[in-house]
Specification:
The protein is of the alpha+beta class and about 425 residues long. The chain has two domains: about 230 residues, Beta-lactamase (3-Layer(aba) Sandwich); about 160 residues, 3-Layer(bba) Sandwich (D-tyrosyl-trna(Tyr) Deacylase, Chain: A), CATH 3.50.80.20. Helix content is about 30%, strand content about 20%. The chain is built from twelve helices and 14 strands. The strands form four sheets. The protein has a five-stranded antiparallel sheet with strand order 3-2-13-12-11, sandwiched between helices. A five-stranded mixed sheet has the order 8-7-6-5-9, with helices on one face. Helix 3 packs antiparallel against helix 7. The radius of gyration is 25 Å and the shape is elongated. The two termini are about 25 Å apart. The N terminus is likely disordered.
Length: about 425
Amino acid sequence: MKKRILGFMVVLGLGLTALFPTPAFAASCTAAKQLASKNIKDLHLEVLNAETGQQLLGINETDSERTASVMKLLTAAVAIDVLGPEHQITTSVYADPQNPGKIYLVGAGDVTLSRMPGNVTSYYAKAPKLDTLTRQIASWARLSGVAITEVSIDNSLYGGNADYHETWDRRGLSQGYMAPVSALQIDAGRITSTQNPNRWLAKRTTKPVDQAGELFLASLNKRNIAVGAKVIQEVLPEGAIAIASVQSRPLSEWISNMLRVSDNSLAEAMARNASLALGFDGSMGSLTKTYAQVFQARGLDVSKLSIIDASGLSRLNKVPAEFVNDLLVLINKGVDNYSVIEAGMPVSGKSGSLRTRFATGSKAATRGLVTAKTGFIRTGYSLAGFLTARDGTELIFTVYNLSPRATFNNRLAMDNLVYRLFQCGAKLSL
């Protein structure tokens, strides 16, 4: 699909230039000053003309490197292709016919299931509630004449033992952007319980499954159910019957939330559900196979992909900037349901993680003109998406600015480079 100018066109162009000298306004526009910044470190960059597919600039674009949260663009595409934008996750509670007084809450991968009362909005708008589940359970128990005395939780959906990758910064728990991965979570593991956890950055529990069990039991107890019981973890027995269920919001809303604020919990949940749907085990170790299968079917070169996680938190993720651009080409075309991805991406000076970037000073000229996914880990910044240049040219770009210890100045230098893309447009060159 690649975006290279044909040789005979180059020769023809040279000949025409000799006959008709290039006017001054068509002269090249260099990004040399921005590229020479001391805060541009290990740079990986590709810029394409969205209309023609021509590569305007490429630097280390074929090298496979860590993406930071730009990975979430890949995750969104995988989720759409495998599960579909209207997919909803159903979380159910079951009763054991052999022991009707025993119920099981089974994790299905919906991290948005909330502790908030029915009339209180959680961080995830219109999220399903424990309160709804326990109301249904109370109704079932009353109509069935069953006294519930035992409560179990089942978190066995995902394979593998790793729930917090060894390369993930443990500060993610205290700083509030990630909890350990599990199929059963409440409010994505947020600890806040005495007030509305209506914040993205909220301290997370190290034991989301235990927390879910405790909150489930507390919700039951409010309805005078299973008072005095203890929660145990065990796998749902065969033959159990569903007595209550709630559904997540459609995946399209998850994708929008994930991209807007770079929600790691949503990313990991979607990827593991996609893995399971393809017949893999939902573990971290299955993600490279999951992503490769999806993108190979799209005709993309997956030979350099190494996917450690779905969120981009690991420094061991490996994706070439060129690959991200190839995916962005498909997103830009809106193939199948990929328009959902672009619709959810942050916009400069307006929304999400770009709301305060490209918004003031000289860069204010790009307000509303950059639609891109941001990325940051301790060892690099990234940005990938679409840009309407000053000359009206639509650009597709991916940039990683990597270093052993990334600083705000590295991000600023990267943003200066992207602003230069805006200034240059179709005339961009080294």
